Amino acid sequence: MRAQINRDRLWDSHMEMAKIGATPKGGVCRLSLSDEDKVSRDLFVKWAEDAGCVVRIDTVGNIFARRAGTDPDAAPVMTGSHLDTQPLGGRFDGAYGVLAGLEVVRALNDAGVETDAPIDIVVWTDEEGCRFTTKTMGSATFAGLRPEADVLDGVDPDGKRFGDELVRIGYAGTEPCGGFDIAAYFETHIEQGPILENEGIPVGAVGGAQGQRCFEVTVTGEEGHAGTLPMDQRKDSFLGAARMADALNAVAFQFEPRPVITVGHVRVRPNSRNTIPGQTVFTIDSRHPSDATLVEMKKAMQSACEQIAGDMGLGLEMVETSVSPVVTFDAALVQGVRDAADDLGIGCRDMFSGAGHDACKIAGVAPAAMIFVPCKDGISHNELEDATPDDLAAGTAVLLKVVIDAANRT
Ligand code: GLV
Ligand code: MN
Ligand code: MN
Description:
12 helices; binds manganese (II) ion; elongated; 5-stranded antiparallel sheet; alpha+beta; 9-stranded mixed sheet; 16 strands; about 400 residues
């Protein structure tokens, strides 16, 4: 019997998972290492164990659910993504990659199909990076790109430590993080952009992803009384940060092809209605398909902020919190995605990812590729994020084929 994706089961699993942290407008809030993250992890572990998988958890909380292969010495074929979301996130960003992996295992079980190599479904910890220091924490640590101790010591805006939160939700595992071979890594994901939907194509074979540099900027002024300190005597850190945000936006228009630059998180201190803000800390997320241009952008952003701080008499510190170089996925695996779609009669086009993904980190230690499916109006990082059961099933059918091929190639 040939293994077949069960479209309705895949959809129902998404809807069940989306209940955890559901938001009023139909989205999801499951911040990394929150109570909601724990409940979603527990549900995944239960489903994986029900599907006969053996679950391991590593020291940064990455979850690996293994379906055994017939060759005990073979390195696993791995597939998965993340279950954490943005504060106003959607039902599919991340969850799709995990639940597609689970559906592959369930489909193999239904058909009684064995593979030579084992299959690991992975849930990476803190992909979104909106709570602690930066994103793709679990996969970057696995790939040796971030020291584990730094990750565990990261704190959220309330001063809560990553390592303590991991213990609190019961996912501080005992397996070492990283250090084992992966035969091939596949990640399915919604596109998070409009191309596939506009062209009516259900699957994207992703060749790579643009690079990213992130920064934390601290602007220091002086607190003062909002009623008494004349306007020309103020050192208002938030006013400086606002001017910097405007200047950073202008920097994005100085380069071709056009980069993206986002100031997304701002903390104003003391954050009081009638005190002039003494300190403002904000983040910059900058991305471009060329590593060299990212370096030029960094210089332009730095000098724009320095100019404003100098003019306003404010202190300025700009710390680079992460560098993710441009990624090229494994050519043979990407070709395998195209071929699988072709064999299945599913339309497919080549893509380049604007978003970052766990696959970008794993590409440094294993052959990796990604499969994209359309999302409604290209919307993501938004409660309104949506995708169709048919498109999710098409991407998962391609995943099933490439996973079986890779797991029998050992
Ligand atoms: C992932 O969510 C990203 O920011 O690219
Ligand atoms: Mn994602
Ligand atoms: Mn995301």
